[in-house]
């Protein structure tokens, strides 16, 4: 949620509840107006399997999977999520589904438990994009 709000408003808010939101945002890219719809789902709700997660996957055209570099569990769940997304989306068509893996909290490097190299290797082996960022900075 912090990363989504930072992207949409350029402000950082550190504390969020465990709520799911859909945001709409206009963006100009290469002179073209684009309307984004962002379905922000807390990690606690990503643990659910079944119809609600499948509904989210079918709804989306692309995916940004965010983990905390300070939380090994948030990183460890990503390979299953990527596999689930690819099976649901790519099984229907031959098109590659755009997925980006984002390691957040880069500013908390002293609390890091997931190395940058681990994130890069997961992205490379899963054919995903990769970034490390800090929503706070």
Automatic annotation (TrEMBL):
SMART domains, A to Z: RAB, RAS
EC nos: 3.6.5.2
Top EC class, one word: hydrolase
Record's keyword annotation contains GTP-binding: yes
GO MF annotations in UniProt: G protein activity; GTP binding
Pfam families tied to this protein: Ras
Keywords: GTP-binding, Hydrolase, Nucleotide-binding
Entries under InterPro entries matching the protein: P-loop_NTPase, Ras-related_GTPase, Small_GTPase
Gene3D superfamilies tied to this protein: P-loop containing nucleotide triphosphate hydrolases
Catalytic activity as recorded in UniProt: GTP + H2O = GDP + phosphate + H(+)
Family the entry assigns: Belongs to the small GTPase superfamily. Ras family.
Protein's name in the database: small monomeric GTPase
Source organism (scientific name): Rhynochetos jubatus
């Amino acid at each position: 949620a912090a990363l989504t709000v930072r992207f949409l408003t350029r402000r950082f808010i550190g504390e969020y509840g465990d709520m799911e939101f859909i945001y709409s945002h206009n963006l100009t890219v290469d002179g073209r107006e684009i309307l984004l719809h962002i379905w922000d789902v807390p990690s606690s709700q990503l643990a659910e399997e079944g119809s609600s997660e499948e509904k989210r996957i079918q709804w989306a055209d692309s995916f940004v999977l965010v983990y905390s570099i300070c939380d090994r569990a948030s990183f460890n769940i990503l390979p299953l999520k990527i596999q689930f997304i690819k099976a649901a989306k790519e099984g229907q068509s031959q098109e590659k589904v755009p997925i980006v893996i984002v390691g957040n909290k880069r500013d908390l490097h002293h609390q890091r438990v997931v190395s940058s190299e681990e994130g890069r290797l997961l992205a490379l082996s899963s054919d995903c994009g990769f970034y490390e960022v800090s929503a706070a900075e």
